Amino acid sequence: MIEDLKALLAGFFTTLRHMGRKKITLMYPEQKRQPAAKFKGRHQLHKYDNGLERCIGCHLCAAACPSQAIYVGAEENDPKAPISFGERYAKHFEINMIRCIFCGFCEEACPVEAIRLGPEYELSDYQRHAFVYTKDMLLDPEKHAPRRQFHADVEQHRGPIGGKPEGEAAVSGAPKGHCDTPTGARTPRKQDL
Ligand code: SF4
Ligand code: SF4
User: Fold this and answer.
1) Which atom of ligand 2 is nearest to the CA of 170?
2) Which of 93, 141, 177, 181 is a plausible cystine mate for 135, CB 3.0–4.6 Å?
3) What is the pTM for the complete model shown?
4) Is 102 in the pocket of ligand 1 (CB under 6 A)?
5) What pLDDT, in 10s, does the model give residues 76-99?
6) pLDDT tens per residue across span 35-68
7) For residue 67, which atom of ligand 1 is closest to its CA?
8) Which residue puts its alpha carbon closest to atom 4 of ligand 1?
């Protein structure tokens, strides 16, 4: 009997202790919590300030992906109108988000910081095919991604992405001539692999 009374009082005391504290419950989805800085959510592809795409179609992200969720279809750049600063660019870039386990290996493998995982975590949809994110959806989600897959109130910049095209580690050891064109694109050439 005494033990029961003690337990009851301890319960009341715990309730009283928390009554004066600030509420931590958020009224989701109207209110959203910003995830931690290192949170790995929805991917984005990035461009340089001059508008060139960072991705050089090297496939390293696809090779590093343990879920085989990434498909990269690369093509040679036209030196007169290059899309990226490298020899090639990603004509097709897709991520199957149903396969993705958000490990971040693709981000780690990318030599030019073209792909990054951001803070976005609300990635619901109704159709399986809607989870195959295309290059447009990854480059400009606000414009191309379905409304269920992009939420500007969660999306935020994760600090600066370093490097200029000609200074990238991926090409800094490249033969002279890589930066011959104003945009930094190398003249495409056939190579025996
Ligand atoms: S986060 Fe991991 S699983 Fe997802 S696409 Fe990148 S490497 Fe693949
Ligand atoms: S995102 Fe990075 S690693 Fe993947 S193909 Fe493009 S440049 Fe290569």
Assistant:
1) 7
2) 93
3) 0.74
4) yes
5) 999 888 999 888 999 999 999 999
6) 888 889 999 999 988 889 999 999 999 999 999 9
7) 3
8) 100
CATH of domain 39-159: 3.30.70.3270
Whether residue 27 has pLDDT greater than 80: yes
For residue 140, give both structure tokens. 């400009």
Is the Cβ atom of 65 under 6 angstroms away from ligand 1?
A: yes
Enter the tokens of residue 159: 């600090």
